[in-house]
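Input record, target 12 of the design panel.
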């Protein structure tokens, strides 16, 4: 069921006080380093592109090079970024599989690993070989200063210990590459019932780890659950044994791209730009 929780005015106030507030980044303007001070969860409150000053969009394109590994759900981000660019060339992106593009005036993204494009956990962080593949991309492309990996549906069934292994592995990579900002992800909010509740707990575990250790977190699950109807935000939830669990909003049910609607992809693409501007050093609105 969908609950209309906040009005436009409350949403604007929340913008200032949660994951996108003014003093929550100590970025130096060049993307160096992997930690962010203060609140650092990038969610539905971080989706208004017009609030990002043009100079910080330019800074992202000039100073950040991104490594992004994912399976099919992760395509939502790249689809969203490309659709935003098609509407406004200010938000230009260049995305290559297994290669870092070099396109002036564009956000350049290395998509996948060197020899793989469909990146399951064992190919990025869950195995020694996967971690070595991530290390290879970063070592062979020293320009890259942001690296991130997106879940499929693993958090629907991963245990607390398995999720902690993810957190520990990414933190280890971050310690090895101090000039790279590693972005943690929550899992998508499509599952309901027991699987959705498990995902909800694991997402909370990931958010808390990032808050405690000052890592950037792209809150994919939150972005799935919230929909802006033109005047206010709505969050989709369901009840599981007396617990309110966020789930994918009805308006995002579809399979236009990456197992969702284009509208959902674009919402996530806007959050990517917001997050990268913060990593680049923007202090927020």
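The sequence produced for target 12 reads:
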């Amino acid at each position: 069921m969908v609950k209309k929780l906040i009005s436009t005015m409350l949403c604007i106030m929340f913008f200032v006080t949660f994951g996108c507030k003014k003093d929550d980044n100590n970025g130096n303007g060049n993307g160096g380093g992997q930690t962010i001070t203060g609140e650092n969860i990038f969610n539905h409150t971080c989706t208004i592109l017009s609030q990002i000053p043009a100079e910080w969009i330019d800074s992202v394109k000039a100073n950040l090079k991104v490594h992004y590994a994912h399976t099919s759900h992760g395509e939502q981000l790249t689809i969203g970024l490309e659709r935003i660019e098609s509407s406004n060339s200010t938000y230009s992106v260049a995305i290559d599989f297994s290669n870092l593009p070099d396109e002036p005036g564009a956000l350049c993204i290395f998509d996948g690993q060197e020899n793989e494009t469909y990146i399951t956990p064992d190919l990025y962080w869950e195995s020694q070989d996967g971690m070595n593949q991530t290390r290879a991309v970063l070592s062979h492309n020293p320009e890259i200063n942001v690296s991130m990996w997106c879940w499929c549906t693993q958090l629907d069934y991963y245990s607390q210990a398995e999720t902690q292994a993810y957190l520990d592995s990414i933190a280890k990579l971050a310690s090895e590459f101090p000039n790279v900002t590693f972005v943690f992800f929550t899992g998508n909010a499509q599952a309901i019932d027991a699987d959705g509740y498990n995902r909800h707990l694991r997402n909370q575990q990931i958010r808390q780890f990032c808050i405690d250790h000052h890592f950037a977190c792209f809150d994919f699950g939150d972005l799935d659950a919230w929909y802006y109807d033109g005047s206010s935000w709505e969050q989709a939830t369901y009840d599981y044994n007396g617990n309110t669990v966020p789930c994918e909003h009805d308006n995002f049910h579809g399979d236009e791209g990456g197992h969702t609607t284009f509208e959902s992809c674009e919402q996530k693409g806007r959050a990517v730009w917001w997050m990268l501007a913060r990593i680049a050093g923007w202090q927020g609105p």
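The radius of gyration is 17 Å.
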